[in-house]
Amino acid sequence: MTSPLESLVLFYLGPVPITLAVVTTWGIMIILITGAFLLTRQLDLTATKRQAALELLVDTIDNQIRETSGAEPAPYRGFIGSLFLFILIANWSSLVPGIEPPTAQLETDAALATLVFLSVIWFGIRGSGVRGYLRSFAAPNPVMIPLNMIESVTRAFSMFVRLFGNVMSGVFVIGIVASLAGLLVPIPLMALDLLTGLVQAYIFAVLAMVFITSAVEDGAHHSKHKPPHSPN
Amino acid sequence: MEYLNLASIICAAFAVAFGAIGPALAEGRAVAAAMDAIARQPEAANTISRTLFVGLAMIETTAIYCLVIALLLLFANPLLG
Amino acid sequence: MTIDWWTLGLQAINVLILMWLLSRVFWRPVAAAISKRKDAVKAMLDAAKETQAKADAALAQVAAARDGITKERDTILSSAKCEADAATKAALSEAREKAEKIFAAEKASLARDTDTARIETTKQAAELSTEIAAKLLQRLSTSSIQEAFVSRLIKAITNMPESDRAALAQTTDGIDLVSASDIKAADKAKITTSVQKALGSTPTITFVTDTDLIAGMEIRTSHFVLHNSWQSDLAEILKELNNAAQ
């Protein structure tokens, strides 16, 4: 049995090893972008069914962002929505025979968690400036500075391990069951995998939004020199 | 060498087994509390379910950590070289 | 466990590119479409609200105008009714008044006519009766009646007030004794003595005949008349009858 921690290198582009996950990601990217391009070619005031479905998706994501952060969704929509869509499609790509989801590989999840980590910094600085963002580490009081700094790394790491563990375990279990009894038996597990994939995509996006929001709000509180709010 | 392999396998099994107990109990409590809350306030079901999912994912993370530890023991054990 | 940093970097770049492209191709157009529709709907709603307000205002105006018309019509109707009532009442009262006046006038004229007719009739009847009486009495002109009239004359002279009798006795022009028929000479002397005796003086007495008297004996001087005849009696009765008729 191949280790789920190893990644299969297909070929080398100069010194760069191109793994199976990278190729799968490219495929997902092509599908998503062409699909989005084709679906959004004719947007009109009077919505067709297709456009209504697209708008429902965007509206749902907007609502989730609004409910989670309490802010207007426009600046975060592209980042959070794309994150959600990519993870969802990547998780569900395990249904296609012969394709291993890229989120079942350490590198993809690590890359996603890194992006979230960087985006928290980016949105925190954009929301309240460098000083405001740095001050947000001192919330609720300066004693918490080292803890907050460690937390900002560990929560990204936790997201990384959570996504990887869930998707990889699903794929792993399905692989084991399929190797034992190939016909029909893995179907319930695959259905469970679908649910897990959706929930994990949703959680990843929501947690990213929560972290961004906390960074923005803490920075905003401190940059306005308001009294520090009580710790929850 | 043989004992190290055996110990790694046994430890991986124990890590997953005991690591699953805590999150299982915790998730049970969380779901029960969420059901109770939804029964009391059906109009807040949306917010409660969203918080519940996030909370469940957080709780589940501990089990996933155990799983990762087990996988490390099995497939990337640094002691086995 | 080893992490392939190349792969990590590639995947990060991949996802970043995906985000950028999706933002360009998917999120922004769809969000723009949504907001555009929202704006369009809002504009339409505003326009609809405006139109509704206009329609409401127009409706209110129409309703007000209709109310005004109704009120005007009511007032016109009521005033017309009042006028008609007043006119009717006035006409009625006028007619009643006129009728009453006519009635009263008729009644008065009728009464007057009746009265005059009655008076006239009574007068005519009185005249007729006096005429009849005169005609009847003319047949009764006998000597006995002559004597009765003479004695009545004597009695009348004696019943006269003292001053009148004195004035009659003192008259110098002479006294006319008027009778209806010629009196015999013997009777003339007898009558003269009785009259002179009654008067207490001796004035010249002339006998005059006047058939109009029917029967009787009257004393006439230039400024004194003593009526003592059927004629004067009948005249007296007629006068009284006429007075009674009035």
Automatic annotation (TrEMBL), chain A:
Its main location: membrane. InterPro entries: ATP_syn_F0_a_bact/chloroplast, ATP_synth_F0_asu, F0_ATP_A_sf. Signal peptide: none annotated. It is found in: Cell membrane; Membrane. SUPFAM superfamilies: F1F0 ATP synthase subunit A. GO terms for molecular function: proton-transporting ATP synthase activity, rotational mechanism. This is ATP synthase subunit a. The lineage of its organism: Bacteria, Pseudomonadati, Pseudomonadota, Alphaproteobacteria, Rhodospirillales. It is a multi-pass membrane protein. One of its GO terms (cellular component) is plasma membrane.
From TrEMBL, chain B:
InterPro entries: ATP_synth_csu_bac/chlpt, ATP_synth_F0_csu, ATP_synth_F0_csu_DDCD_BS, ATPase_proteolipid_c-like_dom, F/V-ATP_Csub_sf. GO terms for cellular component: plasma membrane; proton-transporting ATP synthase complex; proton-transporting two-sector ATPase complex, proton-transporting domain. The keyword Transmembrane helix applies. One of its GO terms (molecular function) is lipid binding. It holds the Pfam family ATP-synt_C. Gene3D superfamilies: lithium bound rotor ring of v- atpase. Keywords: ATP synthesis, Cell membrane, CF(0), Hydrogen ion transport, Hydrolase, Ion transport, Lipid-binding, Membrane, Transmembrane, Transmembrane helix, Transport. Residues 10-73 form the V-ATPase proteolipid subunit C-like domain. The record marks 60 as: Reversibly protonated during proton transport. Signal peptide: none annotated. Key component of the F(0) channel; it plays a direct role in translocation across the membrane. A homomeric c-ring of between 10-14 subunits forms the central stalk rotor element with the F(1) delta and epsilon subunits. This is ATP synthase subunit c. It comes from Thalassospira alkalitolerans.
Automatic annotation (TrEMBL), chain C:
It is found in: Cell membrane; Endomembrane system. One of its GO terms (cellular component) is plasma membrane. It is a single-pass membrane protein. InterPro entries: ATP_synth_b/b'su_bac/chlpt, ATP_synthase_B_chain, ATPase_OSCP/dsu. One of its GO terms (molecular function) is proton-transporting ATP synthase activity, rotational mechanism. The chain crosses the membrane at residues 6-27. Pfam families: ATP-synt_B, OSCP. Keywords: ATP synthesis, Cell membrane, CF(0), Hydrogen ion transport, Ion transport, Membrane, Transmembrane, Transmembrane helix, Transport. Belongs to the ATPase B chain family. PANTHER family: ATP SYNTHASE SUBUNIT B', CHLOROPLASTIC (PTHR33445). F(1)F(0) ATP synthase produces ATP from ADP in the presence of a proton or sodium gradient. F-type ATPases consist of two structural domains, F(1) containing the extramembraneous catalytic core and F(0) containing the membrane proton channel, linked together by a central stalk and a peripheral stalk. During catalysis, ATP synthesis in the catalytic domain of F(1) is coupled via a rotary mechanism of the central stalk subunits to proton translocation. Component of the F(0) channel, it forms part of the peripheral stalk, linking F(1) to F(0). The b'-subunit is a diverged and duplicated form of b found in plants and photosynthetic bacteria. F-type ATPases have 2 components, F(1) - the catalytic core - and F(0) - the membrane proton channel. F(1) has five subunits: alpha(3), beta(3), gamma(1), delta(1), epsilon(1). F(0) has three main subunits: a(1), b(2) and c(10-14). The alpha and beta chains form an alternating ring which encloses part of the gamma chain. F(1) is attached to F(0) by a central stalk formed by the gamma and epsilon chains, while a peripheral stalk is formed by the delta and b chains. This is ATP synthase subunit b. It comes from Thalassospira alkalitolerans.
